[in-house]
Request: fold
Amino acid sequence: MNKYLLKLYITGNTVNSQRAIANLFRICHEELQDQYTVEIIDVLEQPQQAEREKILVTPTLIKQLPPPLQRIIGDMSNTQKVLLGLDLVSQNKN
Reply:
């Protein structure tokens, strides 16, 4: 199994940001076990990094590894959408 490198861009300590963080960690724990690294980037604290990645909406999750690069926008409450973005749907649907 490939190791996943995920970057979650949030805006401050809002309810939506906290929900996205909690949902992402729940999905990662359930589906990826120990095969992931999550980096949380607050666009208020690191605007240059958000600009470099062209983040226009938060929360935005970027799956950098394994390729291909994927972007998921929202609070990560739609588990199927997140699994599809992480390319895990085919592995779990047998």
Summary: The longest strand covers residues 4-10. Helices lie at 15-32, 47-52, 79-85, 89-92. The first helix runs from residue 15 to 32. The two ends are 17 Å apart (CA to CA).
